[in-house]
Amino acid sequence: MKKASQRVAFGETLVELGKEDSNIVVLGADLCSSTKTAMFEKHFPERHFNMGIAEESLMSAAAGLAISGKTVFASTFAVFATARAHDHIRQSIAYTRANVKIVATHGGITVGGDGATHQVMEDLALMRVLPNFTVVVPADAPETKKAIRAIAKHPGPVYVRLGRTDVPIITKEKDDFQIGKATTVRKGKDVTLIGTGIMVSVCVEAAEKLADKGISARVLNMSTIKPIDEDAIIKAAKETGAVVTAEEHNVEMGMGSAIAMVLAEHKHVPMKRVGIPDVFGESGGSDELMNKYGLTVKNIVSATHDVLKRKDKKVSGKK
Amino acid sequence: MPVFPDELIYKLEKQANTNRQHIVEMIYRAGSGHPGGSLSSIDVLTTLYFHEMKQDGKNPTMEDRDRLVLSKGHACPGLYACLAENGYFPVEELKTLRKLGSRLQGHPDMHKTPGVEVSTGSLGQGIAVSVGMAMAAKLDRKQYRIFCIIGDGECQEGSVWEALMASSHYKLDNIIFILDRNQLQIDGPTERIMGIEPLEAKFKAFGMHVIQINGHNMREILAALDEGTWFVGKPTMIIAHTLKGKGVSFMEGALEFHGKAPNKEEYELAMKELKEEAKHLDQEWKEKSLKKNKKGGGRK
Question: Which of B:236-255 have CB within 8 Å of A?
Fold first, then answer.
């Protein structure tokens, strides 16, 4: 699969938006060349503020600009954006419903060599729990462009998680993107694989492997974590009877757990969550780390066999 | 120092007295709240809301209004008194402070209370929010000012210094910070709990234009606000030296009234004192104006 950078897609889209809307202001915290807001700074230096290595100040100043009528993009690495500045996000952005778009890069374990301190596996959990927040995780570069455009128009606080590495392109230019709506990447009837972020592409690969064995797997791209698309989850559970979720995040408290809650309340089907266990990461190559921490095609295929076994039992048990 | 007319000073002192009565009454009725810091900062707030700021209670979202951010959100009874007395909402509503369903929350909520610009409460955030507001004003080439009231204990929060650094880095001379230096925080004197001095040297090192005043002297407050408004190229930090619980004898400098409501006896005593003070202010003004008229008459 061809790969492309979500960060560059973000930077390019910001520049486009900056040209279209003079009300857009961008804030960074010393990582502007990494997060690619530097691209915006180059075009619109007067509307780009580097707040230095000061994430709390970054978030509350973003709130002040938004309260004064600006559409504000605040960007830094996901671990600092969410974990370090959380109380500022909670009070000054979430509680005030400020029109701040936190677009964080370097989410998850694929950060690689920097190791555990820089690999945030709990950012989706931290952002999911805040009232008034919308949480978006685009699957690839083209979807990142659409997501950034969509959130610029969406009033109120939004968190977007992007990765460091180039990710396989699995969406098409013509695909629709709507906040709060999952999209079907691949049709199937035996099981549904629900992925988010980089894991959507891994789900697609897994579905291909499963097809070789005669298993028809549907793949959903859950690009919005909050509000989660309950209808799509329930429909998939009803139509395929089994669900596997996959995320580059702590598996105990991310997308999989949000989906588990929906299934527990609305439609009981065999389910299994694939993701990072409740541990800190470590240094290594991105692929090596995905391998070690259970984010591979193999993990998804084996989880699928597990839910299908339970599904068969359930079906025969009913007889 | 610029000369301010006696009548203005009398008017402000009288209004501050009324606001103090509201604070004591509100917190007594609520059964909880922070009288100490509300009373220490009320002279500054009164000067802002009854003279200095361009604002209109009938038009809370007026485009070019000056903005006030109460970073020490727990002093909101004072802010609510100023807002009610300016017609943002009925004075009668002050009684509902901290009650279920009230628009007057225990800490300020911009979406519930007309006139509250920013929700605050968790300390150390209003400073950076003010920085963002000042950046927006500069971007839009607006003339309005941002006033931000900070607590002294609040200065122990690291984010205060992050934001102050940004305010001088971006030369935000449209912000005036006012530090309510009342010396006390919940656990005791600031210098015993976690020393914050030397404040003037710290603020200067962080690029502020620093002014020190007696935060209960209306003339000094007015002059400092004036100086801060016209100072170019740097944000202004006014260190207002105040007394916690100012205006109620048994609350003055009393640690226990940082975050405790008066009981019935204390409430009655406080109100009696404040009403006597109001009478005294009227009497003083009457004598002063009589003397003035006499003097004026003599000249004629």
Answer: none
Asked if this assembly's ipTM is beyond 0.90, the reply is: yes
> What is chain B's Cα-based Rg?
19
What does the block give as tokens for B280? 């005294």
Query: What torsion, rounded to 10 degrees, do the Cα atoms B102, B105, B108, B109 define?
Result: -60
The range of the structural domain enclosing residue A273 comes to 183-318
Interface size, chain A vs chain B, as Cβ–Cβ contacts under 8 Å: 107
Distances (CA, A) of B27 to B34, B262, B272: 7, 7, 16
Mind telling me the catalytic residues of A?
55
Q: Answer whether A58's CB lies under 8 Å from A29's CB.
A: yes
Q: By a Cβ cutoff of 8 Å, what residues of chain A touch chain B?
A: 25, 46-47, 49, 51-52, 54, 56-57, 59-70, 72, 87-88, 90-92, 95-97
Tell me chain A's radius of gyration from C-alpha atoms.
Answer: 19
State the residue for tokens 């921490």.
Answer: A293
The CATH number of domain B6-299 is 3.10.580.10: no
**Using one digit for the tens of pLDDT, what is the confidence trace for B166-200?**
999 999 999 999 999 999 999 999 999 999 999 99
Interface with chain A: mutation pick from B113, B116, B125, highest number of A CBs within 10 Å? B125
Per domain, the residue ranges of chain B are 6-299
pTM score:
0.96
Residues of chain B with pLDDT under 70: 296-300
Contact B48, B176 (CB under 8 A): no
Asked if A307 and A296 count as a contact pair (C-beta separation under 8 A), the reply is: no
